[in-house]
TrEMBL record:
Transmembrane segments: none annotated. It is found in: Cytoplasm. Residues 1-171 form the Proteasome component Ecm29 N-terminal domain. It comes from Dendrobium chrysotoxum. GO terms for cellular component: cytoplasm; nucleus; proteasome complex. Its main location: cytoplasm. Keywords: Cytoplasm, Proteasome, Repeat. It holds the Pfam family ARM_ECM29. One of its GO terms (molecular function) is molecular adaptor activity. InterPro entries: ARM-like, ARM-type_fold, ARM_ECM29, Ecm29_N, HEAT_ECM29. This is ARM repeat superfamily protein.
Amino acid sequence: MSVFCRSVAAANAFPSALQCIFGCIYGSGTTSRLKQLGMEFTVWVFKHALIDRLKLMGPVILNAILRQLDGSSLAETDAVAKDAKSFAFQAIGLLAVRMPQLFRDKIDMAVRLFTSLKLEDQSLRLTIQESVTSLGVAYKDAPLAVLKELEAFLLENCQAEQSEVRFCVMREMALEGLHLTKDQELLNSADDNANYPKLKDMLDYICLRQPKLLDSTEHREKGLLFPSKTYFAMVRFLLKCFKADCRICDSVTDEFRATALTLCQVLEHGMAFDGSVELHAASMKALVEIGSHQKKLVASRFAGRLPWLKLLLGHVDFDTRESASRLLGIACSEISTTEAIALTTDLVSTITQTKSLRFENQHGLLCAIGYVLAECMKGVPKISESLFTSIVNRLVCVVELETSALASVSMEALGHIGLRRPLPNDINHDAISGGVLLILHERLRKLLDGNDIKTIQRIVVALGHISVKEASISHLKNALDLIFGLSRSKVEDVLFAAGEALSFIWGGVPVTGDEILKSNYISLSQTYNYLSSEISSVSMRWSSSELNVDNESRALARDLIIKKLFDELLYSNRKEERCAATVWLVSLTMYCGHHPRIQLLLPEIQLMEDSEVFQEGAIGETLSGGKLSTYKELCNLANEMGQPDLIYKFMDLANYQASLNSKRGAAFGFSKIAKQAGDVLEPHLRELIPKLVRLQYDPEKNVQIQRKQLMSILISLSRICLRNPDQDFGALEKLLVLPLQILFKAENLVSKHLRSIWMAAFRAMDDIKETVRKSGDSLCRSVTSLTIRLCDISLTPISDASETMNIVLPFLLVEGIVSKVSSIQKASIGIVMKLSKGAGNAIRPYLPDLVCCMLECLSSLEDQRLNYVELHAANVGIHAEKLDNLRVAVSKDSTMWETLDLCIKATDKESLESLVPRLAQLVRSGVGLNTRVGVASFITLLVQKVKDDIKPFTSMLSKLLFRATLEEKRGAAKRSFAAACAITLKYGSPSLAQKLIEDTVSCGVLLKNYANIAADVLSGYHATIIPVVFVSRFEDDKDISTLYEELWEDNSTSDRVTLQLYLQEIVSLICSCISSSSWASKRKGKDVILHALASLCSSCSIAIAADDPVAPGVILSSILSSCSKKERSYREAAFIIKAFDDPECFSEVFPFLSEVCDQAVVAKTTSANTINTSAVIGNEPIEDSCLALEKVLDCVTACILVARLEDVLKETGRVIHILKCAMLPLCLKLQCCLDKTAASNDTSYLIYELFHSLAPKIVEAIRTVKIAQFSTTKFLILY
């Protein structure tokens, strides 16, 4: 079956494929594995079969799949059965795409899938989601009755508890309404052609769901009825519906006005305090948009709500304040003269009298003054000239005295007023009388020389607005002088703002005063697409615009503009001035191109194909031999050279399009080059596209607009950059690396190419050229951010996150982490850790590979210098165990361990089925200290996380970990494996625990970990463990004995109680050990068996004699035979003689001891005579080869203690001889002194006193026959 699932021919083999599928699913001898393969083959058939064959097999197989699903259980635990069910849902989705007619006539399949989405296991929901998405396509052309039934069903499920159900319900509607999958630059064109619902229908639907939207109470005081983000999306969509209705409906009907009024109520509620800033801005802009189409309706509505609008003038958002000001201006057309005077007076007095106003309040008041006064200048309502002059004078004071930001806003207000009528010429300010521009000339010049770009733009555009109605040539000259003063500016936005101002002064701009003041107008460049053919279609309306003022002063101003541009700036020696002149000339052409004067100039400034740029032969010939003279030939030459940008330099040499050196200005000229030489440019797109891509996403919005239009002329950018990701980076670094960073904004287009992009990034990071490596690092950072975002389930749907994870994670594990380039390794590990953090449960399918890779990296990516230190640790005095602990501690602070911690958190019961076998394999084959400690620690933490879910795997893990603990040589790894084995034992079965503990009793490390971690399990096996611990306390190895001593202390309350409790088991174990047939055990115990026998006889002599009267004699004979060996044990014999207290021992032992005593005396004498030369006999020290006199005397003393007096008297000679032997060392010392010529008085005195003191004592002891006292006094060495 696995072969069939890779064969297209098998998928088209009818009816064999059908028979094969039914045999696998319903065959008499089928198995769960066969059913899974059959479903997998079904998916393959649905995907690759020809449509003719699919029409024959599809309906039959579909019925079989549905029967199979009906017969399956929801609580399916078998992994194979789950896979079969997953393939079944995949097959339904594929069939819905290829044969939608099977589903579109009824909603049964939708009901079935949504029910499964609610009830099926979490692991299957992702597959069902994909099937539901595919099924949605099948219903696109369904009958109306089916669509209504489907709509009701979806509405019923939109409140379902399961997030997957809600996602599937809302997905298609969200994509349809908000264009989530479309590029941002395509939205405008999409909106024009979109089939939006009627505004009335949408409002009725919304108000039906939330009737409180239509309440007449003050909206600003209430809470928001929808979440802010929901409300924001709703406002945007309603505004698009409104625009669509305006294009197709009669906007003067009562029905449309009523709908617009309802929309106003909804938008006003969006201004509630609970709303977000972006919601407030969107709502106010929407109200202004309605006002631009329904001026009278909006004006009459807000004429009675002026206080509400005035309150919004202090809003924190700039756009909201601007929109509130526009609405105030619109509302003024419907109020009386008295109200208008009161409103303007209030606005002016507020900004004049209050000194501590916030900037927001000041800005809002100044904007409102401009819009309100501009509306009053239309005549309705009418205000007096004196009030008008005083207000203008106040605005002039603001320009003079306030900050640059407020001064620019005040100039903007003056500009709005100037759109309606000329400003007064009789203003008195600081003893200067005249027009506004004359008074403010020096102040404006200083402001224009500043660094605040926004301030300069507002002032320059305001100069143009002020000059629209101006008839005085002196005023126009002042404005032109200020504008031309910007000719050396290098800021393109300032130059284009100046170009707009010159267009207003020139006259004939394509806007009216109402469009500027009563709509969401921003600028000429952003309001009209002046590079498209729309200009010609509305040229007649522009020529009749109210702003097209034509008088003698205006004609003189035009002459001044032409003279300045053509006589000075275009031919200036300064590059900045040539650039400025070019931008201004382009602006005049685009905004005022239909003015008769511009039409006369076009032949002089426009280059055609045959326009001669240079004198023939002036700059040589083309590659083909032709002369370089025309514009077209310049384009051809640049293309032949593979450097189209050379056209800019040619044009600059000719002193024509100097502005092409700038970013934004280049678009005007180059767009025509691209149109005329597009076919020729195609081979050179590699060189052209990188620069255009970067400029297309320039931070300046205006530059972006030009580049997007230019890119539409060339070719699809994403395909170009992603087509060649593996080319030579030495030539393509800037083509691929830098543009790709920008392309990541189109996430849905890039995700499927992530593997190729990562390969490109890694190749760049490993390049020999430093600039390429830097570009590669930059690309790596960008693609890292994109990858993490695409795999983060909080930002991306789970299906998309899983798909991206399936592309990226295997590549990073196989290609990135194992790379020999350190920067790639570091980046890959960091990315994997971040992916694990953000992916959540989506990481589960990849846990086995990820965990094993991280564990292996703990050793493979360790600093190699530590291996060198380990080799030389002994030489420098570093303990190997301490070094191992240090290495383990360092590894646990690494990024790999952070990733492993995240993997543990993501592990669930299903993940264990694939993860545990991989961990078991790593326990068997893992190399390196950190890897082995890591896998043991990971298992420990994993078991603590999953707890009872580990039970099915405890048998396998316990055996592996137990064997690893025994075989491991390093202490750190041994302890880690022991801890893992102990935590596994905690969840094992009783039989497993018994078997494991019985196998473990000889391993102290394991026992100690069992006691620490699995104490509750271990408590039932103390009878087995305590004897072993007791016996092992007496091991010769100090480390082992210390370990078992600690175990003994931990598991015993007191020695006496514990020994009494487990005495039988301990004695049984000791007897078993003593009777062991092991030669090593016998050799090890031969040295201590006599000590044990002596202690036993001392403590239990009565019991031994009572149990077996012959036993004391046998024991004594054994001891005496040991005394005759090289390693003699007389002290033990003394213990036994004293313990049994048998008088018969004296007659058996004393003669033997007398002989031994003679040998001991000889050895002692020899030792004393040769003590300074350290003589040896038979290459052995004398102490080892001779008998110890002290031990013999101990044994003699014990014999005398237990003997009868008559037996002692019989051996009088030997007793006296032994006493002499005991005194022999002192006699030898004294003899050495007496041999000298003159003995000292002290020595003589000692001998004298010794004789006279001891002799009476001896006589007294003999007289009273107190042998026991004599023995006790004479020999103090007895125990």
